[in-house]
Amino acid sequence: MDNPPSVDDLRGAVANALPVTRPSAGRRQLLRLWLPYLCLVPAIIASCGVLLYPTLRMFQYSFLNWSFGKSYATAEWDGLANYQWLITSQSSTLFHSLRLTLLYAGASIVCELVLGLAIAVLLNRRYVFGRQVVLTGFMIPTLLMPVMVGMMWRMYMYPNGMLSYFLGLVGIRIDWYTATWAMPAVILIEIWQFTPFFIISLFAGLRAISAEILEAAAIDGASGWYRFWHISMPYLRPIIVVTSMIRVLWILKSFDIVYTMFTGGPGSATEILGISIYRALFLSRNIGRSAALSVILAALTLLVTFAFVRFAYRSREVMESATS
Amino acid sequence: MLYARNWMIACFSLVLVVALAGCVPAVPSEPSEAPIDTSQYADRYSDELLTWAAGIRDAYGGTTLNMLGFAHPTLNAMKAITAEWEDLTGITVVYDETDLAKVRDKFVLDITSGANSYDLVMTAEVQAPEYWNLGYLEPLDAWLNDEMDVATEAWLDWDDLHSGYTMMFTSVQDGSRYAVPISGEVALLFYRTDIFDELGLTVPATYDEMLETAKFINDQGIVEDGRTVHGISFRGRPALGGGNWIWSIIVFPFGGQIVDLDDQVTPAVLAKKEGAVAAIAWETEIAKHGVPGIASFDPFDAINQYKQGFAAMSIEASVLSPGVLNPDESIVTDLTGFAPLPAGPNGSFNQTFAHGVAMTASGENKGAAYAFIQWMLGRANQDLLLENGGAPVRRSAMEDPANQEKWPYIEATLLGLDQAAAAYANRYFATPQVEWVLEYLNVWSVNVSRAIAEEISAEEAVENIQSGMDEILAQK
Fold first, then answer.
1. Which residues of B touch A70 (CB under 8 A)?
2. Which helix or strand (DSSP H or E) is residue B300 part of?
3. Are residues B302 and B401 both part of a single domain?
4. What confidence category does residue B24 fall into, taking pLDDT thresholds of 50, 70 and 90?
5. Residue A75, domain member (yes or no)
6. Staple B251 to which of A154, A298, B256, B325, CB 3.0 to 4.6 Å?
7. Across the interface, do A265 and B105 touch by the CB < 8 Å criterion?
8. Residues B122, B82: one domain?
9. Same domain, yes or no, for A13 and A104?
10. pLDDT digits (tens, 9 = 90+) for A127-186
């Protein structure tokens, strides 16, 4: 009985049966080199259409003198006039808005992070009654629409609102609607709504740390603080960086809560960049200036994202070098 | 177990589908061919009007009108009586409601995007000039002059409408009319009669007296049921209908002006700087004796503070008076007096503000739309609008003793209208009829709010207003 044909025999037979259309080695190499890019072409075209085109248009609009409500045909090329106005004009609120935006973002995120971390650590203790219920409950503010949140807190913070009333009972009087307290008020609302985002993320991070490592450190005599700072924190650092970055991106573009609460006021006490962009477009009807402000906001966002990514990479390198 | 779970999922899905089906709005039914029973309306509408409505039903029954409006007592009053219109004519009206600050954005975006979704748009006097200068509104003159498909009925009685309101929607350049006022307002002084009586105070006749009164009341530290009663409440938010509103009214009695009195376009705040500064300084000063946070208040915040007993006085729009008199909304229903604004060093002036309805130039149902605004504006519905929280725009309704007795603010409103007429005789207009009127208003609003919040001085605010308006004009 003959031996059955081997795989190589079969391959050879098939190759011989097929017409000789195999590309040359050079063409094969070329195909191998370009095929991945060819496959990416549809995605690149779609991305350009959806992401790049509107961004470039916004960039183009920032150089135009064009009134909202008039056709594009009436728009005139204005060079850098919009940027120049934003930087030099006495009426421009750019630097004021930038300062407020950074204050708003910085104060909110630091408080959210510290509070979120503290609560996550508490929830991560071995015995916590109703942990899942508490975690689910914490998610509720994050799920609410910011406009709704703004309206709700606007009523609470009324001079005769619920929050003012309860604070009054313990002898604290805060006039949230005044210029002094308006910014702290919106920061407080941000903290209320988005601290749970940090809690959930950091809690997940803490749960991922191997219990054995922590137990081993405890046996070696490491204190609770030492274990938290030198074991848990390095593990949490990438999560902190990513969650903070996401929050910064959200908050830099923030608009709804501040608009619903104070429309940028009283005076200009809460005129963050989002409000300035809105005012430039819908109240001053200046598409060019509004686009220029948006470009500045986009640049700021990119800068912050870059800084975070760089920090994240550095943290990873430090961690890798420490463990190796 | 699995079987039971599948059943539960199936039942839940069924309930969900039924619930969702219930949420789908019903398709408006075609009007019935049979004539409707109008006997229920016989006591309210004349035979002439009912016959007219039947004619409109024959011509346009089954039409749907889309109207864009803003949240306001005027719109609430219109909506309250729309069911009758739909019943009488078979024309459905779909209201798309947003807030005052957003309605203009929504309308402009709708037109510029080419969507052209609306047959009718509700407009305040500050928005209308922009709309008509951009060609968004249908001029009404041809309709009012009986040159179009739908005749103008005698009961519309245009001359009975108060000219202080109709002129808000009439171009000063060419006299064309673009909207009809469904309601209107002047600024009024609301005051607590009980507190005034108790403290032996009289209604302030000048702005200086008003400032002293607010300070005096505030200094008393009155506490009612745990509430501190402050001297005054008014609006000062840096938004349309906020900080700009009172300043644009009181700047004239204080001896200031906003634009050149002849051309009504060129910014001229600095031409009478002292008066303009004095008006802002007065607002800043009196706010210190008011409910904390005035620089954040919109009209509704301001009047709510008064209605809930936190302020002894308020300068607010007369159109908000029905809410003050409504015991479901207010605890000062029987404790409120209404008075016209006091006098300033330059005299006693007020301004009218109107809330109107206009036909869009791009609307496809103009005949039905014109019939609707004619019906809504007619004398027969004036009292009904009043009953539902609207404000009268007809002189006959305002001078009617029965209405004056029933609605105690009407008398003060009429006096306020006289004050406005005196202002207009001097060419003191708070609303320049230019396409960029909202840009002007934005500049006033932000700077007045900043001054009230004590971010800048009154003098700086006035200079910023002048330079801001100059910049806007230079770009045009």
1. 134
2. helix B299-307
3. no
4. very low
5. no
6. B256
7. no
8. yes
9. no
10. 888 888 999 999 899 999 999 999 999 999 988 889 988 998 999 989 999 999 999 999
How does the average pLDDT of chain A come out, rounded? 89
> For the segment B196-212, what is each residue's pLDDT rounded down to a tens digit?
999 999 999 999 999 99
Matching residue, tokens 């950074």: A102
In a domain, A39, yes or no: yes
Does B438 sit within 8 Å of A285, measured CB to CB?
yes
How does residue A59 score in pLDDT terms, banded at 50, 70 and 90?
Answer: very high
CA–CA separation, A15 vs B249, rounded Å? 93
Q: Is residue A255 part of a domain?
A: yes
Same domain? For B212 and B122 the reply is no
- CA-closest candidate to residue B373, choices B134, B43, B65, B54: B65
Compute the distance between CA of residue B472 and CA of residue B269 in angstroms, rounded to an integer.
14
Is B401 part of a structural domain of the chain? Answer: yes
* Residue contact A179–B292, C-beta within 8 A: no
Mean of pLDDT over chain B:
91
Q: Which residue of B has its CA nearest to A157?
A: B293
Q: Cα(B458)–Cα(B43) distance, rounded to whole angstroms?
A: 56
**Which residue range forms the structural domain that includes residue B358?**
45-184+354-406
Q: Are residues A251 and A106 in the same domain?
A: yes
Per-residue pLDDT at B212: 98
Token representation of residue A195: 């601290």
Instruction: Show the domain range for A274.
Output: 83-323
Mean pLDDT of A102-129: 94
Across B25-54, average pLDDT: 73
- Tell me what ipTM this predicted complex has: 0.77
How many folded domains does chain B comprise?
Answer: 2
Residue range A123-127: mean pLDDT, rounded: 88
> CB-based contact (8 Å) between B406 and chain A?
no
Chain B, window 174-203: residues with a beta carbon less than 8 angstroms from a chain A beta carbon: none
Cα distance from B261 to chain A (closest Cα, Å)?
Answer: 23
Among B90, B93, B82, B28, residue whose Cα is nearest residue B55: B90
Q: How many domains does chain A have?
A: 2
Are A138 and A45 within one domain? Answer: no
A11 and A51 part of one domain: yes
Where is A223: in which H helix or E strand? none
What count of CB pairs under 8 Å joins A to B?
Answer: 108
- Contact flag B310-A182 (C-beta cutoff 8 Å): no
A34 and A120 belong to one structural domain: no
Sorting pLDDT into bands at 50, 70 and 90, what band is A9? confident
CB contact under 8 A, B453 and A177: no
Question: CA torsion, points A5, A11, A17, A22, in degrees to nearest 10?
Answer: -170
Summarize chain B as % helix, strand, coil (round to 5): 50, 15, 35
* B177 and B228 in a common domain: no
pLDDT at A282: 87
B108 and A179 within 8 Å at the Cβ level: the answer is no
3-state secondary structure (DSSP) of residue B344:
strand
Q: Which residues of chain A have a CB within 8 Å of the CB of B238?
A: 263-268, 271
* Residue A302 parent element (H or E): helix A287-323
Nearest to B442 among A65, A71, A279 (CB): A279
Q: Identify from B132, B228, B237, B296 which residue to disrupt to test chain A contact, counting A C-beta atoms within 10 A and taking the largest count.
A: B296
- Interchain contact, A178 vs B295, CB within 8 Å: yes
State the nearest Cα–Cα gap between A268 and chain B, in angstroms.
6
- Cis peptide before B292, with omega less than 30 degrees from 0? no
- Quick check: is A2 in a domain? no
- Residue B9: pLDDT over 80: no
Instruction: List residues of A whose CB lies inside 8 A of any B CB.
Output: 65, 68-71, 89-91, 158-160, 175-179, 182, 262-269, 271, 279, 282-285
* pLDDT tens digits along B59-97: 999 999 999 999 988 899 999 999 999 999 999 999 999
- The stretch B163-192 carries a mean pLDDT of 93
How near does any CA of chain B get to the CA of A176, in Å? 7
Is the predicted pLDDT of residue A90 greater than 90, yes or no? no
